[in-house]
UniProtKB/TrEMBL annotation:
GO BP terms in the entry: protein maturation
Record's keyword annotation contains Metal-binding: yes
Swiss-Prot/TrEMBL keywords: Metal-binding, Nickel, Zinc
Pfam families: HypA
GO MF: nickel cation binding; zinc ion binding
UniProt entry tagged with the keyword Methyltransferase: no
Name this protein carries in UniProt: Hydrogenase maturation nickel metallochaperone HypA
InterPro entries, sorted: HypA/HybF
Organism whose genome encodes this protein: marine sediment metagenome
């Protein structure tokens, strides 16, 4: 499943950003999902929750916006430093 790989990579990228910034908490995660990505908001949320379990990302609110194309984009993180 291509979608699983995309979400897993996005979680890893977000965790790297958190680590680089030495964040204490992640409040919100802003994501754009491409209209042709074969990934629904519901599927993304489910997969994100699975891959972010027991991490600093787990309690964060996920804000999803539509985008053009096939990609999955980590737009930004709202963090407490």
């Amino acid at each position: 499943m291509h979608e699983v790989k995309l979400v897993k990579e996005l979680v890893e990228k977000a965790l790297n950003i958190v680590k680089e910034n030495q964040a204490k908490k992640v409040k919100k995660i802003f994501v754009k999902i491409g209209a042709n990505s074969h990934l629904t908001s519901e599927n993304f949320s489910h997969l994100f929750k699975e891959f972010s379990k027991a991490t600093i990302l787990e309690p964060a609110e996920i804000v999803i916006s539509p985008a053009q194309g096939e990609g999955l984009i980590l737009e930004s993180l709202e963090m407490e430093i």
